[in-house]
Amino acid sequence: MPEIIKLISDTSVSSCTISTHGATVLSWNVSGNERIFLSKLADETNPKAGKGIRGGIPLVFPNFGPWSLGPQHGFARYKTWTIESKTDRSAKLILMSDDETEKMWPNKFQLIYTVKVTDNKLLTTLSIKNLNDGEFYDSQSFDFTCLLHTYLRVPDIKTCTITGLGNSSFHDALTEKSEQATNQEIKGLHENVDRNYSNTNDEHLLKFDDTCIEIRKSNLPDTVLWNPWAEKAQGMKDFGNDEYPEMVCIEAGKVAERQLLKAGESWTCEQVLTEMKKFVEVGDSDEEWNEKYNK
Ligand code: TA6
């Protein structure tokens, strides 16, 4: 059974829970509001071996999408991670390559994942180190794609606004066509959407009601936008048929091009989720706030 880590911000306003199954963030609660979507059928306390948890922030490594060497989205999201250290508000988890991973993907690696919660932020950092020493494997370098498959909870995806994708091209996984984004803001999703945007803004805003969630990423140049909608939802055993309106995946990733990592080298990426509320936007006047978030 996986361990569940509970983190709480210094003022106890916010909390976060993480499962050692895939180092999956299961919950991020800000002032009593749950901001992460976890399917009611996710079975997070007793997750299936070899499967990721449906919801939260699954970690995709060493391959985003279908994979000839192993399961879709790779193994990081279902392997049992080790808790390296923990404080009240932060945790550090480690995943080392092992016999199972090396049979699929003949490389030695170390993943270090840190999670920290503050009053209105959830900070997640993933470091990947290539531990190939040439003794075992011919090619010391390896390449990978990776992504934080973030499921965000919303009241109704049809009435949300999503920014930061307007200047990018995307691969539409439904049509297998490349398209150019046309709208600076996406005003709600109204059907099955599965788009891999390349070279996106490092900041996205997800706005609904009086709430604005900022997704800020670094060293993750791409963004995947996904909602399964009704028909695909019915095809997922670990996802309720009626749940698709209350979630959206805005996924920060390095997926358009594979990342090469030489033996001994490390590569680090970060995602920071922030709940932007008027009273914490220090320095913004009402006019500036309205200009920013209430367009
Ligand atoms: O989020 C993009 C995506 O690749 C979709 O195509 C869909 O497959 C989703 O991931 C969920 O994948 P999973 O393997 O978790 O069922």
Report a brief summary of the structure.
The protein is mainly beta and 295 residues long.
Largest sheet: 9 strands, antiparallel
What is the total tally of β strands? 21
Helix content: under 10%
Ions, cofactors and other bound molecules = 6-O-phosphono-beta-D-tagatofuranose
Describe this structure as you would to a colleague.
This protein has 295 residues and is mainly β. Helices cover 7% and strands 43% of the residues. The chain contains three helices and 21 strands. The protein has helices at residues 99-104, 229-234, 286-293, and strands spanning 4-8, 14-19, 24-30, 33-34, 59-60, 82-86, 90-96, 109-117, 121-130, 142-148, 151-153, 161-163, 169-172, 177-180, 185-187, 193-197, 203-208, 211-218, 222-227, 247-261, 266-276. The strands form three sheets. It has a nine-stranded antiparallel sheet with strand order 6-7-8-9-21-18-17-12-15, with no helix packed on it. β8 (109-117) and β9 (121-130) form a beta hairpin. It starts with a strand and ends with a helix. It binds 6-O-phosphono-beta-D-tagatofuranose. Residues 52, 65, 72-73, 173, 194, 224, 226, 249, 251 line the site of 6-O-phosphono-beta-D-tagatofuranose.
